[in-house]
Amino acid sequence: MENKIRVSNLNFFYGKAQALYDISLEVPEREVIAFIGPSGCGKSTFLRTLNRMNDTIPIARVAGDVIIDGENIYAPGTDVVALRRKVGMVFQKSNPFPKSIFENVAYGIRINGIHTSKTDLNERVEKALHDAALWNEVKDRLNTSAFGLSGGQQQRLCIARALAVQPEVILMDEPASALDPIATQKIEELVVELKRDYTIVIVTHNMHQASRVSDRTAFFMLGKLIEYNKTEKMFQNPDDRMTEDYITGRFG
Amino acid sequence: MAQTGALGDKIFRAVLLLAATSILLIVAGIFVMMVQNAMPTIGRFGIGFLFGSEWKPAQEEFGALPFIYGTLVSSVLALIISVPISLGIAIFLVEQAPKGIAKPIAFMVELLAAIPSVVYGLWGIFVLAPFIREYLGPVLQGYLGFIPLFQGRVTGIGMLTGGIILALMITPIITAVVRDVLEAVPTTQREAALALGATKWETTTIVLGNAASGIAGAVVLGLGRAIGETMAVTMVIGNSPQISASLFEPANTIASLLAANFAEATDRTYLSALIEIGLVLFLVTFVVNAFAKILVMGVASRNGKAA
Do A89 and B190 touch (CB under 8 A)? Predict the structure, then answer.
């Protein structure tokens, strides 16, 4: 299968401190990739190199290549705004805008000028909410504030907001870590559902979550990629001793 | 059995309560004192005091309207000039400026707040007034002279000069408050916008949306300062109790009137009139603040946050 993302020899620095060492991996299209590893291992930092979100940190520096659909996103002259539309992101803490439910989802559509008419906008918002499995819960209150939703609903709203701009890749940074088990389960089901149309990279602290939702898993330690394998193999018979120790809970 | 520290907590609570109520007592005290001392003119002129447009102490004619007008117009003028500048500075400092530049600029803005009012007044007389008379006034008249606001003789002393001086004086406070408010907007909001493919400008509008109620609060703080500012305005506004459509004409404000005339107000009616107009200033400030509070609450509830 075609590789959607190809990372080669990626090094990342915060000022003088190196946070990522020589990361190379490939992400096939329409698969779910889980990043696991102890806190501070660099998995979130790595995730954020894939849509250049680290650009907002003045002292951050990147060396190496991240190639998405054949284009190096760190090449000079890259359109970062277009890149981020293609590579959407869902954050650890749900962060809806202080707007209505409808306007939250409509925002990305509006700023990118995706819609052709008012009706088209409405349809796109409805579809995004459907795809994020939220429509039935909010269809009667679209014009009320997004802050009136529960934590799990807010996170699915953020997913709907990300879907609405029609990305090809969705990066998720511990999207369920602040949610209760039922809300978490809904997000996990959603991730599996979304795999049909999107390539998904998800950072998680939860081993079971990684094994449940992902096709491949990458294990990070101290800024290095220790092992990258099919999830089944990773959890049953990992190649690396450190991976096994981490997954079985012997450290970390 | 008595709970540990119950008495101590009671005393602690009483002290706090006293501190909290003292502010109410002070406000009430000032209000009662002013009403008492203004009784002679309140009784004599009634509501007509507010709408009279003649102020002739020698003939015992006291109309407060020109001063109320001057206060409101100069303050609003100051806001119109200051708010865009303050927002621009604050947005630049928080959203765009590299640290090496942001710090010195923020420091300069704070320095502006530390300059005494009378120095602003002097600068107004010797720099701003001639500049308006020679350059700004003629240019405005040349292009916008058909609007009544910019008609009449440009002397350099008048409403416009007062408004600009006030704008300078409230810019530091509005900038500082807006900066704090913008800094308080969570980074996750900016990242959410950026991740959807928002440009810097679009991201900033999201940040401003988050900060709307705080920005409204900052503007009101500025308005409050502008309404009460005295010395610098007295020096450049011309101190003439007239209501003119032209911004070039001299005018007067309540605070400025009080500062300039209190010392010479020896007879009882004159003094009472001055105190009554002070009371008006007090009430105008109160109404402005109350209005702003309603505005802020409206913005806050629309944003879905508790006010």
Answer: no
